[in-house]
Amino acid sequence: xxxxxxxxxxxxxxxxxxxxxxxxxxxxxxxxxxxxxxxxxxxxxxxxxxxxxxxxxxxxxxxxxxxxxxxxxxxxxxxxxxxxxxxxxxxxxxxxxxxxxxxxxxxxxxxxxxxxxxxxxxxxxxxxxxxxxxxxxxxxx
Amino acid sequence: xxxxxxxxxxxxxxxxxxxxxxxxxxxxxxxxxxxxxxxxxxxxxxxxxxxxxxxxxxxxxxxxxxxxxxxxxxxxxxxxxxxxxxxxxxxxxxxxxxxxxxxxxxxxxxxxxxxxxxxxxxxxxxxxxxxxxxxxxxxxx
Amino acid sequence: xxxxxxxxxxxxxxxxxxxxxxxxxxxxxxxxxxxxxxxxxxxxxxxxxxxxxxxxxxxxxxxxxxxxxxxxxxxxxxxxxxxxxxxxxxxxxxxxxxxxxxxxxxxxxxxxxxxxxxxxxxxxxxxxxxxxxxxxxxxxx
Amino acid sequence: xxxxxxxxxxxxxxxxxxxxxxxxxxxxxxxxxxxxxxxxxxxxxxxxxxxxxxxxxxxxxxxxxxxxxxxxxxxxxxxxxxxxxxxxxxxxxxxxxxxxxxxxxxxxxxxxxxxxxxxxxxxxxxxxxxxxxxxxxxxxx
Lengths: 141, 141, 141, 141
Hints:
Chain A is an alpha+beta fold. Chain A has three helices and five strands; from the N terminus they run E-H-H-E-E-E-E-H.
């Protein structure tokens, strides 16, 4: 089940900063960067891995964030677009580690980098559940 | 079922502005005032009407916002507390009109005023449903 | 200065629902629809009226929401896109009334409709200020 | 300037979960936990360290989040209160590491734990700036 030494694909999603993301420092509010990563993953789940979040929910699964780690390099401001690069870092029995990098669209300067550990859960009781083989296969691109 | 000419009670909830509520204008972001009204209603549902949102959900109901109308008088800033006064304006077959007023704690100056029309729905299909008599009774204080 | 009997242009912006917009009812959270309207206006300020929000800020102006009125028709869900149509309803001395309509992308069904009264303010003290003639001209397309 | 081997005080703030914090999984949305930490720090800056965020802003300073790391143990739900314990982990030349723990009010079960590295910046240009001695003193309780 482990996919060691596997090199996973990197996928990209470009998002537009929304005015309601801007905080008192005139930057995107720090916790919103994690929402951007989430949005990028949802987009990529459907577009790049071939299984949308809705498809997970329909099968009785959901994904919880277990660990989030983010290092901020420079802030995004009103009008910016951001390119979010993510790749699977590791597929585990009950979850997936996703590594991300955020670049400012236009000049490509680094905005933030980090990782999230997601755990797959049974949607009804929130308990961790083993990732089905077909999902592991989809994520092993 | 109509409760015409009924004078409904006014209830109050005091909330502390959170830093993530502040936007680029150094004020609470305009849409967050509606979130404050929502928070006040949830508090009051349990504390003042004797039926928490969870109790509604447990009975298979939820509340949707049908109409929201808000007039902003002055902005709340970092460190402010706000007193949210709400009262039922009208109880209808499928919903409740709630009138609200928001006052800055300390000097009592008006922050905003408006109303929300809430509709009661079946939680599973989102369809409007008649408000049960016992709920009408609870809301008729 | 009044622009009576003027028929203003309608502009459109398409937005993708973000996962962090979804609330406990599995719909876009009610107050986020107003954030979508705001995002559409910011996009259109630059793209359709030829003066970005940043350009307003650079000239010492900002826009506050004075009144927001929204009627929800149907909820947006995860994966949806929404088409936001706005047009100037009236240009006043210190502000602009903007009428909006939101349609679900794909089937064009109505999601919400309403209006916002924006007031132009001096960015530094938050006081209402007369809209400069050149801005009135830009908004009179 | 380094405060090695110093044992810093732990301070606590209790927050009420707001309905708009709940996401599609019926839990507080993952990025909002970081907003709770921020709210706790703002509260404690004023109440426990004797220098409010506003006082920092008035002196031309602001605080940026450089690194955020959070491990989620269990989700908060509608109606929950959360106790946020924070303490200074390290005072550096340009910033402060803050360690936090979040406990569910009532049963005291662990909700999340982690740390944030904050950097002090010049409010006007966003550049890191050395923490003034009097601030270091205030933070060394």
